[in-house]
């Protein structure tokens, strides 16, 4: 598999969306699934399944039959907006309809449509955490428990390997994250509020055409807690600004995690940075096709412990249309890396949960013979 750079792409071409739908239908046919109910939310962890087949990042529910047009039920204000046409001619194969009364219509509309199809085979759902109890109960009442199957694995299987277009968008997201880091290096100083820092980051990524993003932050001393919003902390001399800078250009995320020194790291943080470096460099050397994800995780965890620190967390995650794109880099992930997979790897070295800690990392593309950092930065020296 050769991954080429694609210049100038701002979103996935419609031709690629229709190819995806065709592959999904092949999987449906093999499993006697007549229709899928695909659910998504407008958030960083549950948007991807819907966007994968529609280019629309507003969540909603899609009824995907084995043949014919798709139907996307979405908030009325979005469904009637001409902005939908900016993602390309998706109306050629998707009926975009408003759901219900603008608040509670999914069970009546999406499940009602499935009921009207008089399905005799299986009905699959994709994205169960985004469906909701009322919709699932309505689906049970419409077709019965015996014919409902969780078909989310079909989407995860296809989404795991990124196309050239997807990787091009992720490269752009990684470049935005790099540039944001450079801005922060010149911007932060002791005494600065995390509200000021957070606002500057959001301004930067939005001005660089990322329609949404995730910024984890901790600006209190050398702590590394995973707040997704500012809490009034103030940057301290000797401490760090812990960030996960995560823009999503064209809907595709890339992540640059880093414990950024405010000025000079304290002695305790320097020891943690050394432990991080020991685990990180080992893990990075193992990123290649055929390696078990669990082996990478266990090796990094052991090396960090040998260096006098601990890491009770996962060391990263797949990344793409969602921030956590189907799997985590953890000890239980017993499957192999393959060319075309993308992941964010960021092992941490901490004293204890909610204590001092240090982390850094990058977004990677697994290639035919190894892994490529999508970031231009190198955090492995000077700390």
From TrEMBL:
User: What start-end ranges are recorded for coiled-coil regions in this protein?
Assistant: none
Could you tell me which residue ranges the Creatinase N-terminal domain spans?
Answer: 20-161
- InterPro entries from the UniProt entry: Creatin/AminoP/Spt16_N, Creatinase/aminopeptidase-like, Creatinase_N, Pept_M24, Peptidase_M24B
Residue stretches making up the Peptidase M24 domain: 169-368
Q: Which Pfam families match?
A: Creatinase_N, Peptidase_M24
Q: Which Gene3D superfamilies match?
A: Creatinase/methionine aminopeptidase superfamily, Creatinase/prolidase N-terminal domain
The protein here is known as: Peptidase M24
This chain's source organism reads Microbacterium album
């Amino acid at each position: 598999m050769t991954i080429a750079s694609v210049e100038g792409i701002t979103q996935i071409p419609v031709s690629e969306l229709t190819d995806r739908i065709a592959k999904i239908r092949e999987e449906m046919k093999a499993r006697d699934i007549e229709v899928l109910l695909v659910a998504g939310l407008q958030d960083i962890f549950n948007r991807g399944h819907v966007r994968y087949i529609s280019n629309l990042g507003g969540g909603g529910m899609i009824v995907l039959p084995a043949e014919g047009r798709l139907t996307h039920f979405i908030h009325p204000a979005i469904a009637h907006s001409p902005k939908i046409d900016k993602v390309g001619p998706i109306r050629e194969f998707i009926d975009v309809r408003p759901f219900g009364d603008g608040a509670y219509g999914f069970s009546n509309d999406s499940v009602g449509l499935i009921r009207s199809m008089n399905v005799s085979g299986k009905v699959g759902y994709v994205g169960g955490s985004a469906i909701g109890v009322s919709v699932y109960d309505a689906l049970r009442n419409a077709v019965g428990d015996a014919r409902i199957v969780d078909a989310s694995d079909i989407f995860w299987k296809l989404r795991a390997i990124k196309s050239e277009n997807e990787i091009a968008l992720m490269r752009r997201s990684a470049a935005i994250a790099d540039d944001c880091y450079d801005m922060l290096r010149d911007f932060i100083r002791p005494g600065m509020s995390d509200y000021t820092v957070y606002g500057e980051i959001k301004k930067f990524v939005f001005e660089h055409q990322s329609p949404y993003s995730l910024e984890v932050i901790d600006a209190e001393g050398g702590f590394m807690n995973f707040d997704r919003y500012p809490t009034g902390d103030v940057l301290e001399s000797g401490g760090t600004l812990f960030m996960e800078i995560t823009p999503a250009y064209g809907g595709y995320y890339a992540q640059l995690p880093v414990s950024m020194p405010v000025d000079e790291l304290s002695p305790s943080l320097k020891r943690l940075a050394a432990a991080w470096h020991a685990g990180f460099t080992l893990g990075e050397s193992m990123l290649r096709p055929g390696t078990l994800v669990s082996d990478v995780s266990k090796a990094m965890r052991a090396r960090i412990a040998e260096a006098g620190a601990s890491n009770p967390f996962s060391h990263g995650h797949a990344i793409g249309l969602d921030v956590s794109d189907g799997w985590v880099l953890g000890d239980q992930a017993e499957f192999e890396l393959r060319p075309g997979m993308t992941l964010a790897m960021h092992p941490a070295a901490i004293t204890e949960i909610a204590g001092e800690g240090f982390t850094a990392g990058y977004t990677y593309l697994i290639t035919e013979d190894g892994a490529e950092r999508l970031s231009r930065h190198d955090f492995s020296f000077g700390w």
